[in-house]
Every structure is written in C-alpha cells, then in structure tokens.
Amino acid sequence: MADNLSDTLKKLKITAVDKTEDSLEGCLDCLLQALAQNNTETSEKIQASGILQLFASLLTPQSSCKAKVANIIAEVAKNEFMRIPCVDAGLISPLVQLLNSKDQEVLLQTGRALGNICYDSHSLQAQLINMGVIPTLVKLLGIHCQNAALTEMCLVAFGNLAELDAIKLQLVEAGLVECLLEIVQQKVDSDKEDDITELKTGSDLMVLLLLGDESMQKLFEGGKGSVFQRVLSWIPSNNHQLQLAGALAIANFARNDGNCIHMVDNGIVEKLMDLLDRHVEDGNVTVQHAALSALRNLAIPVINKAKMLSAGVTEAVLKFLKSEMPPVQFKLLGTLRMLIDAQAEAAEQLGKNVKLVERLVEWCEAKDHAGVMGESNRLLSALIRHSKSKDVIKTIVQSGGIKHLVTMATSEHVIMQNEALVALALIAALELGTAEKDLESAKLVQILHRLLADERSAPEIKYNSMVLICALMGSESLHKEVQDLAFLDVVSKLRSHENKSVAQQASLTEQRLTVES
Q1: How many CA atoms lie within 13 A of 300 on its CB side?
Q2: Is 132 left (phi over 0), alpha (psi -120 to 50) or beta?
C-alpha cells in the first residue's frame, strides 16, 4: 500500500498540472482509499509530498473532480497537524467559493472540509465569517432542508460558530432562527432517526443562540417576537426534545428583570407548571431540570415572587422533593430560595413543613454534591431569616438542622458565612432555650472565637459574630463558654478596626462582656 501511495502521489503531481481527467479521478480514488485505511499516516505523506498546494487549482467551479478533492481535504483536516498546512496551501478561499455551487455532493464535502480545517480555531472561524459564509450557509440550509447530510453539516457548522457571542447576533440577523424553526416544524412528528437528530441539533442550536445577551433580546422583541411565541408553543408539545428546548429557551429569555416580569404577567408560569406536572411520574430529568431553571430565573424580580407564590409554584416544586437526581435537587432548592426572599408568610409556611425541613437536613450532608449541600444550607438559613418565626426555628431544631447552620458559618464563601450568622443570631434572639444544647454540641462559641481572632475574616463576618455573641449571653451554659474563652481580648482589639460598624459593635460587645462577667 505504501509504495502504491507514493506512486499515486507522484502521478497526481503530474496529472494535477495537465488535468488529465481519467487518471486524475483514479489517483484521487486511491488517496481516499488510503485515507480510509490509515488517515494519519496517509495525511503525513500527503503533506510531505507538497501536493496540497496543487489542490487549490482543482477546486475551481469548472473542475470535474472538485467534490473528491474537497472530500480528501475534509479527511486530512481531521488531523490537527494538517489544518495549518491546508490554510497555508491557500485552500480556504476556493472552498468558500464552492459554497455557491448547486451540486449537493460538492456542497457537503466543501462544508466538511471548511468545518474540519477551522475546527476549534476562533481566528480561522472569524476569517470565514469575514468572507461572508454566514448568509451563504443560512441560504443553503433553507434551500437543501430535504438533504439530511447537508442539513446536519450546516447545523454543526453553525453550532461551532455560535460559540462566539458576537457571532450569535450575526447568525440571528442572517435569518438562521427562521430556518431552524422551519426544520423543527418539519421534523417534529417524524420518527426517522435522521429527523430526530436534526430536530435535536436544530432546537439545541436555537437555545445556544439565546445565550448571547444581544441575540436573546433581539429575539424576545418585548415578548411580541414571533420567535418567542413559537418557542412558547414548544412547551406544551408532546415531544420531549422540544419541551426541553422550550424550557431552556425560557430560562435564557429570563436573564433580565424586564423579560421576567413580562413573561410572568403573560402566563408562562402556568405553562411551566403544567410541564412539570407531566414529568412528576415519568421523571424525565433533563426536562425537570430545565423547567425548574426557568422558574428559578423568573422568581428573581421582587414583583414576580408574590405572583408566582399565589400561582402555586411552591406546591408544584415540592412534588420533586423525593427526586434522587442532584441536578433536580439543586434547581428545586434554588427556586424555593428565590421565591421566599423577603416573603415572610411563604417562608413561614415552608419552614413549618416538616417533610421539607427533614429533606433539607438530609441534603446538608450530601458530601458528594457540593452544590446541593450548599443550596440546602442556604435555604435552611433563608427560611429563618425571612420568616423570623419561632415555629420555623423549632421545626429546624427538631429536625437536627442547627449543626448545619453552625458548620455553614465556617464556609469558604463569605455570603454563606454571613447568611448562617444572621440566622443563628435570630435563633439566639427568639428560641435560645430550644436550640441551646445543639448550639453547644456544634461548638458554636469556639467557632465564633476563631472567626473573630482570624485577621482574614471579612468585616461583616466580625460584626455579625459579635452580634451573635451578645445574643448567646442569655444562655447560662453558653455564657460560661464565652467567659472561659477570653473573648474580651479579641473583642477589645477590634475597637480600633478600620471599619466603623465593626469598631462600634466591638465597643458594645466589650461593655456587654464586662457587665456580664
């Protein structure tokens, strides 16, 4: 084979120059065969032979073997070491010209060749875009949507280009979205494998385009956009892939307050709740995760919280408490945390829900899933902070949640430390007697001493630790622990802290410690 290949390459050099059609076709077939048998080795030989330079002349619209040459380029460019040589041989420009061909095989091989040469290279992709390939490819997708291989090639090309944010907008402006919606419309009821693949690639690409802020806002068009309306219609469909893409699209549209408020006012919440309802039993995890992501984002603007609560979102979300899938658990927790932010009544209702609190305590120990663990801790703390309710605190104490809040005060994330300290201060102020034993066995006083003595602790951590120390003085046993641990030394040092609030709180705490000693 090797000798044969060397002969072919020599012969090809001669025939490529005088373009003897028959022998040229034969040589190209030989190369394709050799590439099929051992792509890497054959590619190395092709590069060494200097034949790449001759390929540009065989890619002209008049050339009868342009499809085969493009196919060979596509094959060699699967190897990373061949991509720059292809560029240096001047192959990009003639390949881009061939995208105007009417021949479907030429288009397919040309698209593959360009895709493989530019794979993973933002600078080469940018070069293609400057040469105007986006409108050309969008046009091809529209004309040849019956050709599965060509459609797939175009969709993959767009998927690679759309990784770049600036390009997302160009793709939208070139009319790609309308093409994608058309593909989805045509393939949605088909059970042919090619069509199912296209539907997935097309709808995934649609979601990818919405990750760019500008492209997303352009397609939202104040909620009046035809694209937005079509995506909404995917949510109640019976096709799981479309339900998934629809919910992910809503989660992406819900990236700013204005869009969120508009969508909630126009009934999106009910559509998402219906979708979740359809997946409580059959448990399609990706759809559950996507619908919960959308609800979580929609719950961020303050004005939406009460509306979503009265629409029954908490009840819909709580149906997934029994889920064993960490991604679903994570989004469920995040959605509830967003919903109860500054909503005292809802926080109290959830905080008295024993089933929920017990599940949170269980998830606080999910060592393998840091995200779920962190969100469970944050929700426990939020239930106390937003309800300020004795009943909620009692429920959390009875379910064994106190030790997790104390551990959370030592988190590496300042925001979580802070949330824990504020919740613990409320517990100490409202239900110290109930929580006393748990606070003791969780070594809270020692932890506070450490936080105050550590120079790296953020000012708000020092401030809230001192507030908490004062609140703990109402318990005899905890008071004794404070006295045993020479807190006065640490606190008096903080009177000269550069942060005014910390310095003031240090003075107050010092007085309190002196009076009570």
Answers
A1: 17
A2: left
Q: How far apart are CA 137 and CA 176, in angstroms?
A: 9
Q: How far apart are CA 466 and CA 422, in angstroms?
A: 11
CA distances from 414 to 364, 411, 461, 464, 504 (A): 18, 7, 8, 12, 21
The tokens describing 377, both together, are 């801790």
The Cα 167–Cα 180 span in angstroms is 16
Token pair 């993973």 is found at 120
Please spell the DSSP secondary structure of 6-65, one letter per residue. Answer: HHHHHHHHHHHHHT-HHHHHHHHHHHHHHHHH-HHHHHHHHHHHTTHHHHGGGGSTT-TT
Which residues contact residue 218 at a Cβ distance below 8 angstroms, ignoring those fewer than 6 apart? 169, 172, 173
**Are 172 and 127 within 8 A, CB to CB?**
no
Tell which wins on pLDDT, 4 or 506.
506
**Other C-beta atoms within 10 Å of 110: how many?**
28
Residue found by looking up tokens 């989660």 in the block: 251
pLDDT in tens, 196-237: 988 999 999 999 999 999 999 999 988 888 889 999 999 999
- Pick from 1, 123, 113: nearest CA to 58: 113
Integer Cα distance of 338 and 347 in angstroms: 11
Q: How far is CA 327 from CA 251, 275, 487, in A?
A: 15, 17, 43
**Distance (Å, rounded) from C-alpha 370 to C-alpha 286?**
20
CA distance 114 to 93: 10
Position of tokens 């919280």?
Answer: 305
The model's pTM: 0.85
Q: What whole-number distance in Å separates Cα of residue 139 and Cα of residue 415?
A: 50
With both helix axes pointing from N to C terminus, report the angle between 148-161 and 133-143 in degrees, rounded to the nearest 10: 150
Task: Kindly report which listed range (20-29, 44-53, 381-390) carries the lowest average pLDDT score.
Answer: 20-29
How many other C-beta atoms lie within 10 A of the C-beta of residue 429? 16
Tokens 């990236």 found at: 255
Contacting residues for 92 by C-beta, under 8 A, at least 6 apart: 86, 114, 117, 124, 127, 128, 131
Q: Using N-to-C axis directions, what is the helix angle for 165-173 and 133-143, rounded to 10°?
A: 50
DSSP for 223-252, please give it.
GT-HHHHHHHHHTTSS-HHHHHHHHHHHHH
Residue 147 has phi, psi (to 5 degrees) of -95, 105
What helix, strand, coil percent values describe the chain, rounded to 5?
80, 0, 20
Q: Cα–Cα distance between 149 and 306 in angstroms, integer?
A: 49
| Confidence band for 337, pLDDT divided at 50, 70 and 90 | very high
Q: Which residues contact 403 (CB under 8 A, 6 or more apart)?
A: 438, 441, 442
